[in-house]
Specification:
Helix content is about 35%, strand content about 15%. It is an alpha+beta fold.
């Protein structure tokens, strides 16, 4: 969900009344930044509180493994009933992403059975250890087989909300604490909300809107139709969240802490990008974040926050953690070459789109390091208010390079904050 497609963040939007009402009762974080621009690494950062280069779940063969407890395990250890409802193929037991959830609904049918999960995990670990040059010839035919089989990629949004409401109904009377993670795939491509939403937003021909296998269409696509389809999907998302919120009230669970967040946004033609896997544009990494808490007064919070801080924030608002460190001067992020999506790129556009990124954000500027497969590196510095790009000087380059070397040097958010020399240099550059 793009932040600018919610009325809570953009007064021009008039089709998200349910989320907007929730926002009026919530703490609205106006500047939240995701740690990666696509699902697997972004969710892994939320579930572990770490950066992509620390947790390593950044590609199709990656399997999340962490020394510390996952977010769900934190609640599980405190006696919470934990459950996840997600049709997302990346947020599954197979990827190690649902550890700590007592029950998981992935809508996988036979594929969700334990033997298949164990087989997938073993295969993933085996492939992950392979050299990329050996792995690709093995993985690519498998990917084409899945594509040819036309595996169901439906968002299953209505089914997701139905299952979540069933969970609430089952736990309404016992008053035992619960942690429920609900992953709505709307408004993710391919856009296919019910017809009434398409009609409402003037979508004339849905077949003309690119799907997730048509990520590159420079000069070939009517962006207005694409954006209308996205608005229709965002509108549908709002109504689904409205259903979930009404269910909380119906089942007497009004005191439940409710968090609404996006794991990433979406480019809708800006810079000739569609999607999110190949860019760290602001439309993709700047995300909505709302927290409705019965004991917290509604307010707007303009501090820069990292989405991964939910790992500490949620246990705190639940009263099982004393974390008070929300907010930062610089939000960090990045991801590796997204191998799983490489087959979508035409060879003549490969060098332009297929990259490894590191980025950090202040409240005013964004610094990005982009690396091609051949090792060529470029740096950009962008003024967030004006969009003006400037040269990236030596000190900022060194900071980005340190993020890139974090796996070896153990550079992290805490290291940056504790390093007095870096803090002094940042202050000399005008940052608080």
């Amino acid at each position: 969900m793009r932040r600018d497609h919610l009325g809570a963040y953009n007064e021009a939007v008039d089709f998200t009344e349910h989320i907007d009402r929730i926002a009026e009762e919530s703490i609205v974080y106006e500047d939240a930044v995701a740690q990666a621009p696509w699902t697997l690494p972004s969710h892994a950062s939320v579930f572990t509180g770490t950066y992509p280069w620390e947790h390593g779940a950044t590609n199709q063969n990656a399997h999340l493994e962490t020394d510390g407890p996952t977010l769900a395990e934190k609640f599980e250890r405190e006696g919470y009933t934990t459950a996840a409802v997600t049709p997302n193929i990346w947020v599954t037991p197979h990827k190690g992403m649902t550890d700590g959830f007592g029950t998981v609904e992935n809508f996988l049918g036979l594929g969700g059975l334990t033997p298949f999960e164990k087989l997938y995990r073993s295969a993933s670990k085996f492939l992950e250890r392979m050299d990329e040059r050996i792995r690709r010839p093995i993985v690519e035919p498998l990917n084409r087989m899945f594509d040819a089989a036309d595996i169901d990629t439906a968002c299953r949004s209505a089914e997701t909300i139905d299952a979540a409401i069933d969970f609430l109904g089952a736990h309404a009377g016992d008053r035992d604490p619960f942690f429920l993670f609900v992953n709505l795939m709307e408004p993710h491509e391919p856009y296919d909300p019910p017809q009434e939403y398409l009609d409402r937003h003037g979508v004339r021909d849905l077949s003309a809107v690119p799907d997730d296998n048509e990520a590159f269409f420079v000069g070939e696509t009517d962006y207005s139709e694409l954006r209308a389809a996205y608005r229709a999907s965002a509108d549908y998302t709002d109504d689904l969240i409205g259903r979930l919120d009404r269910a909380l009230s119906t089942h007497g669970l009004d005191e439940t802490v409710l968090v609404v967040a996006g794991d990433h946004g979406q480019a809708l033609g800006e810079g000739d990008f569609f999607g999110h896997q190949f860019t760290v544009r602001e439309e993709v990494v700047s995300v909505p974040l709302l927290v409705r808490h019965p004991d917290e007064s509604p307010r707007r919070d303009d501090r820069l926050v990292e989405l991964r801080e939910l790992y500490r924030l949620l246990p705190r608002v639940a009263g099982i953690d004393s974390y008070e460190g929300l907010g930062t001067d610089t939000a960090l992020g990045g991801y590796e070459f997204p191998e799983v999506f490489k087959r979508y790129i035409d060879e003549d556009r490969m060098d332009h789109y297929y990259r490894k990124y590191r980025y950090y954000r202040t409240g005013d500027e964004k610094f990005v390091k982009s690396e091609r497969e051949d090792g060529t590196v470029s740096y950009t510095r962008t003024d967030l208010e004006t969009g003006t790009e400037r040269r990236v000087e030596g000190e900022h380059r060194r900071l980005l390079d340190e993020l890139d070397d974090a796996e070896e040097s153990q550079t992290s958010r805490s290291t940056i904050e504790e390093n007095e020399a870096i803090e002094r240099r940042l202050e000399e550059l005008g940052y608080r």
